[in-house]
Design goal:
Elements lengths: L1 H33 L3 E2 L5 E10 L4 E6 L25 E8 H6 L8 H8 L5 E8 L8 E6 L1 H14 L2 E2 L2 E2 L1 E2 L9 E6 L9 H11 L4 E2 L6 H6 L2
Antiparallel strand pairs: 1-11, 2-3, 2-6, 3-4, 4-5, 5-10, 7-8, 9-10
C-alpha cells in the first residue's frame, strides 16, 4: 500500500514537471527559430534620426524630443523627472511590467509574486521614459534614419501604448526612478513570457517599416537586425 502511494505521488508530480520541461524547450526552440528571421528587409531611408538602444538585456526606442512632426515634451514633461531637467535632445521609450519596474530595483528585490505575474501577464505595464542630451552610435546604440511617413507610424505606435490623462501621458509619481533624467508612465498591454520589453520594440520597428527580427525576447537579435 505504501509503495503504491509513493508511485502515485511520483506520477502526479512527474506530469507537471514534464509539462514544464516541454514549455521551456518550446520557448528556446522559438527563440532559435524566429530570432534569425528578418522582416522589412529593405527599409526606406529618410531624414529622421532615431536609435535602438540596449543595456545588454533591455531595448529602448530613442527618438528626437522635438521635430516639426511632434514635440514629445508636450506628452512627457521634463518636470516629471526627479532632476526637473530643463531640456533634452533625445527621449528613450522602454515598455515593461509595471510591478517589475517599480518594485524590483535590483535582482535581489525580485519576489516570486512579481516574477509569476510578469511571466503570465497578470499585472499591468508601464513606459519607462529617459531623456538624453546626446546619443553616440555604438555596439549597443544602433542609428537609423527613417522617413517622416514611417516616423509618423512610430509616433502613433507609442501614443497607442501610453495611457492618457488630460491629453498627456499618465505619470506615475514614484521614487523607483533610476536617476535624475527618467520617469515612469502608465501603459497599455500586459507583459508576459512571449511579449516583453524587446518584443514591444520589435512591434515599434515593424510598425515603422524598419528592419528587425520576426520575434525574440532577447535584446541582441534586435540590435543585430537594426540597420
Amino acid at each position: 500500500m505504501r509503495n503504491k502511494l509513493i508511485r502515485q505521488t511520483c506520477f502526479a508530480l512527474w506530469i507537471p514537471l514534464e509539462l514544464f520541461i516541454a514549455l521551456v524547450c518550446s520557448y528556446f526552440l522559438c527563440i532559435v527559430t524566429f530570432s534569425p528571421i528578418e522582416i522589412n528587409t529593405h527599409p526606406k531611408k529618410g531624414k529622421v534620426t532615431m536609435y535602438v538602444l540596449s543595456n545588454g538585456v533591455h531595448t529602448d526606442l530613442v527618438l528626437p524630443v522635438n521635430t516639426k512632426i511632434i514635440n514629445w515634451e508636450h506628452f512627457f514633461s521634463f518636470e516629471n523627472t526627479r532632476g526637473k531637467i530643463q531640456s533634452a535632445n533625445w527621449i528613450a521609450f522602454g515598455w515593461g511590467d509595471k510591478g517589475f519596474y517599480l518594485n524590483t530595483p535590483t535582482w535581489g528585490d525580485l519576489t516570486f509574486s512579481t516574477a509569476f505575474k510578469s511571466t503570465f501577464g497578470l499585472s499591468s505595464s508601464a513606459l519607462h521614459v529617459t531623456y538624453y542630451d546626446s546619443i553616440k552610435k555604438s555596439n549597443l546604440a544602433h542609428k537609423l534614419t527613417i522617413s517622416e511617413k514611417d516616423y509618423q507610424k512610430l509616433i502613433l505606435f507609442v501614443k497607442n501604448t501610453m495611457v492618457k490623462e488630460k491629453g498627456k501621458a499618465k505619470w506615475i509619481p514614484t521614487e523607483a526612478v533610476y536617476g535624475d533624467r527618467d520617469a515612469f508612465y502608465d501603459a497599455k498591454g500586459n507583459y508576459n513570457l512571449f511579449y516583453n520589453c524587446n518584443t514591444w520594440v520589435i512591434d515599434g520597428l515593424d510598425n515603422a517599416n524598419q528592419q528587425t527580427c520576426f520575434w525574440t525576447p532577447l535584446s541582441e537579435p534586435i540590435l543585430h537586425h537594426a540597420n
